[in-house]
Description:
Elements: E1 4-7, E2 19-21, E3 25-28, E4 34-40, E5 47-50, E6 55-56, E7 63-72, E8 75-82, E9 88-92, E10 94-95, H1 98-104, E11 116-120, H2 129-135, H3 138-147, E12 154-162, H4 175-183, E13 185-191, E14 194-197
Antiparallel strand pairs: 1-14, 2-5, 3-4, 4-13, 5-12, 6-12, 7-11, 7-13, 7-14, 8-9, 8-12, 10-11
Helix pairs in contact: 2-3
Amino acid sequence: AAAALIPLRADGAASDGWKVTGGGGALEKAPAGFLVLRYDSPDHKPLVLVPPAPIELPKDTTRLTAWFASAKGDCALAFRIQDAKGDVHTVQTTDSTIDGRAIQNDPKRRGEWSQWNRAESPNLRAPSEAEIRARLLPRDAQRVIDAVWPQPLKLVGVVVRPLKPGDRWGGAYNRDQRDAVKAGRGLVWMRLPVIEQGYSRDADFYAF
Length: 208
């Protein structure tokens, strides 16, 4: 079975109503389902894209993903998740197309690879209490049970962290990109995040 993909939309309003917090950031006009952020953050402090209202995640959510493309500068994404107690957790992502970015930064090879990158959270599905007790010694199980984020979980923001020149491959950018990255300036396109229910590389779905 394929993973279920659910676009995250608040109040059915596509990208309308999202806002940005953090100095030097502004959302520009974008097609439905996209966010376009222009930022100028000389100190490389992160910015946060905030939905119109917290978006509750289904209990069987496994991961959050988002496609993004840096038209200028470079950045990394993270998700802000709020649990039932009101505690907010920053969930880092992995980036799918680092090699593609390196190719894009070679003037002789630019155009050979898409600028779009897929940011993917780690698995968000918490094990049940029974699963925890089955895997751990009793003295350890309760500590893990107490540490599990209480449901329901809500997406309350997407963190955009401007990268510094040495954050990726020792700063191997072309001149224009390097200058923008060094200055903390950028222009990033992002598709609205997507919920995954079921994961293509988990054992129940993996084809190999």
